[in-house]
Amino acid sequence: MLELRPNCECCDKDLPPDSMEARICTFECTFCADCAAHALKGVCPNCGGNLVPRPVRPPRMLEKYPASTKRVLKPDGCTRAA
């Protein structure tokens, strides 16, 4: 099950569970749409995989399976994976 992380790893923008702006890779690294498109060019800086829109968990399921509250942030910002 997806953690639904609460923020962009690059810029720390809030990404609530219903955000259409969240992008993830297969390891669930999480970025906002702006960082994913511009700074990262659609490539995860951690694994090199592609970034895709994160699914939205229905509200009734969020009650039973809440989103993560643990923030992950790259202290030096993001650069595209080599």
Q: How would the blueprint of this fold be written?
A:
Blueprint: E1 22-24, E2 30-32, H1 33-39, E3 52-53, H2 59-64
Antiparallel strand pairs: 1-2, 1-3
Query: What percentage of the residues does DSSP assign to strands (E)?
Result: 5-15%
Please identify, by name, the CATH architecture: 2-Layer Sandwich
> What number of structural domains do the residues give?
1
Task: Give the number of DSSP strands.
Answer: 3
**Radius of gyration over alpha carbons?**
12 Å
For the largest beta sheet, what order do the strands appear in spatially?
Answer: 2-1-3
CATH topology: Herpes Virus-1
CATH class: Alpha Beta
The biggest beta sheet is recorded as: 3 strands, antiparallel
Order of helices and strands: EEHEH
Helix content: 10-25%
Low-pLDDT segments: none
Count of separate DSSP helical elements: 2
Mean pLDDT: 94
- Give the overall silhouette: globular
